[in-house]
Amino acid sequence: MDYMIFLTAYIGAIIFVFGAVIGSFLNVLIYRLPIGMDFKKGNSICPNCEHKLNWKDLFPLFSWIFLGGKCRYCKAPISKQYPIVEALNGAAYVLSYVFLCGGEGLEGLNLKLAGYMIVMSALIVVSWIDFKHQIIPDSMWIAILVGGILVVGDALITGEFSKSWIISRVIGFFAVSGLFFIIALVSGGRAMGGGDIKLMAAVGFVLGWKAVIIALFMSAVLGVIFSVGRKLIAKKEMKGVIPFGPFLAMASAICAFVGEPIFNAYLNMFNIYI
Ligand SMILES: [Zn+2]
Questions:
Q1: Ligand 1 centre distance from Cα of residue 234 (Å)
Q2: Could you tell me the distance, in angstroms and rounded to a whole number, from the CA of residue 111 to the centre of ligand 1?
Q3: Rounded to whole angstroms, how far apart are CA atoms 77 and 70?
Q4: Measuring CA to CA, which residue among 99, 210, 101 is closest to residue 165?
Q5: 3-class state of residue 139 by DSSP
Q6: CA 53 to centroid of ligand 1, rounded, Å
Q7: In 3D, which of 89, 96, 113 has the Cα closest to residue 29?
Q8: How far is the CA of 76 from the centre of ligand 1 (A)?
Q9: Listed residues: CB within 5 A of ion ligand 1
């Protein structure tokens, strides 16, 4: 096999494992952040039998698979959330390396990758916590901004940075968040929460204005698909509002990869038909 392809695949595999390990930490955040528990302290325990978990029980993905999705001590089922978050985070890191940072061998192991890793992980945590608890912790949109600052730092180092490059991000900061802010003002805060505004400001700064606008449309589509799907599965009207934040976060993660190409493709189409 071509040496470069081998090296890229090898580094990709390491990045996936690293992402899965960070993913198991994200599971801790998802569990502890909403209840205000200190995520730095204490051992992990089984939520059912409260048995302390050791490294064999916490090994990302593999523990869950080998234990058949059950606690080793009390056999209570362990939520699928754990392996899903670990696998998602691993996959998001590999995709960031390959598609956002031009991953080819050692190329792509840069500040930009570190930035996007933080952004992806924060978006995964936001999706989960907002879905379960209807809150977006401040620490998460701040993490996304920090990731964005790393991406800016990388652009300064590599020379990708330009006036239009940074202007796109400054406009991105306000593009969707500004719209949300107006909706919040008009509705007296009922139709739009502060968490969504701050989330989309940080996301817009990372993605730029084109991709964040596509993320807004995509989140609406995802939300509709989800509520229709839920109705079909439940076969009756479900109670409770569906929070918008999880779809915003998911669409933002997807649009980091495809947002600008979709925006440009749409403009091209527009030019042809008008
Ligand atoms: Zn247990």
A1: 30
A2: 40
A3: 4
A4: 210
A5: helix
A6: 9
A7: 89
A8: 6
A9: 46, 48-49, 71, 73-74, 76
Domain limits of the chain? 1-109, 138-274
Could you give the percent of the chain with pLDDT greater than 90?
A: 70
Predicted pLDDT at 59: 81
- Expressed in angstroms and rounded, the spacing between residue 63 Cα and the centre of ligand 1 is 13
Spacing, Cα 78 to ligand 1 middle (Å): 8
List pLDDT tens digits, range 223-267. Answer: 999 988 888 887 666 666 678 899 999 999 999 999 999 999 988
Q: Which residue has the tokens 């730095």?
A: 40
Torsion, CA 249, CA 255, CA 256, CA 260, rounded to 10: -150
CA of 68 to the centre of ligand 1 (A): 13
User: How confident is the model over 70-127, as pLDDT tens digits?
Assistant: 999 999 998 899 999 999 999 999 999 999 999 999 999 999 999 999 999 999 999 9
Whole-angstrom distance, CA of residue 180 vs CA of residue 93: 29
User: Residue 59 C-alpha to ligand 1 middle, in angstroms?
Assistant: 16
Q: Which residues pair with 45 in a beta bridge?
A: 52
